[in-house]
Amino acid sequence: MTGVTLSHYLVDKQRSSPLITHELRLLIENIATACKAIGVNIGKGAIAGVLGHAGTDNVQGEAQKKLDVLSNDILIRSKRANGTLAAMASEEMEEIYHIPAEYPRGDFLLLFDPLDGSSNIDVNISVGTIFSVLRRKAPKVKKPTAEDFLQPGTQQVCAGYAVYGPSTLLVLTLGDGVDCFTLDREYGEFMLTEERMQVPEDTQEFAINMSNQRFWEAPVQRYIEELLMGSAGPREKDFNMRWVASMVADVHRILTRGGVFMYPLDSKTRAKGGKLRLMYEANPMAFLVEQAGGVATTGRERIMGLQPTELHQRVPVVLGSKNEVERVTRYHLE
Ligand code: AHG
Ligand code: MN
Ligand code: MN
Predict the structure, then answer these.
(1) What is the residue with the minimal CA distance to atom 6 of ligand 1?
(2) How far, in Å, from the CA of 236 to the mean position of ligand 3?
(3) Where do the DSSP E strands lie in 46-152?
(4) Among all ligands shown, which has an atom nearest to the Cα of 60?
(5) For the CA atoms of the chain, what is the radius of gyration?
(6) Domain ranges of the chain
(7) CB-based neighbours (< 5 A) of ligand 3, an ion
(8) pLDDT tens digits for 235-288?
(9) Pairing label, strands 205-207, 240-241
(10) Which residue is closest in CA terms to ligand 1's atom 19?
(11) Closest ligand 1 atom number to CA of residue 62
(12) Ligand 1 neighbourhood includes 116 CB (under 6 angstroms)
């Protein structure tokens, strides 16, 4: 095996920055191990009987898939004993998860979407895991509460995602650029395969669920209409559309070759504040995109600047290539 493993990479980071502590390295290595386990289960699919519905609903009233539940269990069980976490929070759990008394409690808070893109599991399309790491501000002796998690995205110390596609990838930021690792399945190691990912400022590709068109607000109607007019319209160039319906896969494409991803506010989701969740979908993806030179807003303001009020809060999301996201945001503010 040649090249840089995730552990090797993290040891180098630890040497060069006092912010990357031994505990943080251990936490990230541990998340990577859980992602490998999730990937193995996804890979087995029907052979392991993991496809289909679990027969339960999560806190958001969404039907849980067996793999939503399994991925959540893998993350909880693999992380609760590692001594780095004060508490965890997940899309699949209404309340925060307290570290059982028999295990040591650490300084970090971990938030995750254990399986993103659930609607794609049963049809063998890429899904992923999204995570965000915060440092707990309250003293260690105090029992963690949900309020400890309500920190703006700018406070994230690390964020990333795993995408279970043709290859299993881990994409990571520690606040100094975005790097990508590919799982070497034979050795069981994540290998550094791309450093300093960059989102090009301009793009001709957009991602939005067009079936929601009639529910959108006027600025989004205008923006998409202009893209669809292509070279015959005011943008004077043709655009292409891609929509995987797994945010991880759509964001990964944007980190790789640019694009704009939108899940805007619409009249269907207005009462809930949007579709995607701030703490474990929008914030970690916004951190990655910004670290790669892109922009992430709600259409009106910077996602990472929002002061969260609820663990499972939802927000509108517009992210990706700088010039397109700025245009969409400008249309909203005009
Ligand atoms: P999750 O599977 O964690 O609930 O998230 C699904 C999200 C996101 O991945 C994706 O962008 C969006 O929902 C897809 O929504 P549509 O059903 O509107 O395509
Ligand atoms: Mn999701
Ligand atoms: Mn999910």
Answers:
(1) 117
(2) 38
(3) 53-57, 63-65, 85-90, 97-98, 108-116, 127-135
(4) 1
(5) 19
(6) 6-194, 205-333
(7) 91, 113, 115-116
(8) 999 999 999 999 999 999 999 999 999 999 999 999 999 999 999 999 999 999
(9) parallel
(10) 245
(11) 4
(12) yes
Secondary structure of 1-49 as H, E, C letters? CCCCEHHHHHHHHHHHCCCCCHHHHHHHHHHHHHHHHHHHHHHHHHHHC
The phi and psi torsions of 173 (rounded to 5 degrees) equal: -130, 140
User: How many Å separate Cα 195 from the centre of its chain?
Assistant: 19
- At 62-83, the pLDDT tens digits run 889 999 999 999 999 998 899 9
Rounded distance from Cα 168 to ligand 1 centre (Å): 19
Fold of the CATH domain 205-333: D-Maltodextrin-Binding Protein; domain 2 (3.40.190)
Which atom of ligand 1 lies closest to the CA of 211? 18
Task: Judge if 6-194 and 205-333 fold alike in CATH terms.
Answer: no
Measured distance CA(292)–CA(294) in Å, rounded: 6
Architecture of domain 6-194: 2-Layer Sandwich (3.30)
Rounded-to-integer distance, Cα 169 and Cα 128, Å: 9
Q: Hey, CA dihedral for 159, 162, 211, 54, is it positive or negative?
A: negative
Q: Are 91 and 280 in contact (CB under 8 A)?
A: yes
